[in-house]
Each structure stands twice: as C-alpha cells, then as structure tokens.
Amino acid sequence: MPISANSAETLALNVLGWLVGNDELLPIFLGATGASAEDLRDRAGEAEFLGSVLDFLMLDDSWVIAFCDANSVPYDEPGQARATLSGNSDMHWT
Q: N or C: the chain end with fewer CB closer than 10 Å?
C-alpha cells in the first residue's frame, strides 16, 4: 500500500532530524546539497527539499539501514516516501 503524502513528509522530517543529530553525515549532506543550517530551518516544510533529504539518505544503503534501525522504520519506506513526495515523476521505465 502506498504511503500517504502526510506520512511521507513526516518520515522525511524524521530523516532530517536524524541527519542534524549525526555529526558525521550532516556536513556531508550540507556539502552535497549546498544547503546551509538556515536552509534546514527555512525549507523543512517544502516537499522538494524533503525529497532531497530522502535522495541523500538513499545514496548509501548503510545510511538507510542506520536510519531505519534507529527509528524502527521498514527499509523500503524511505523509497516509498520519496516516490510519494515526487508524485512518482522520477520513475523511468527505460
């Protein structure tokens, strides 16, 4: 069953909070996205920004596993949330 938009946003916000609390990954996220600490606060309510948070998490399976294990979330849920936030527009069948 697909995840709801509200649940997808909530999960992405939880990922953002997890990243902010991760001294090792936060600088990598900020460097990779060009976001500042101010952007984290100002853009946390934007679906596009939350999508980028999920995109970053899913760059590395070990990050997905660490987040999911720490938050008792099924491993496939970040991907489902990302698809919901993008409206499945990122899906390519080629």
A: C
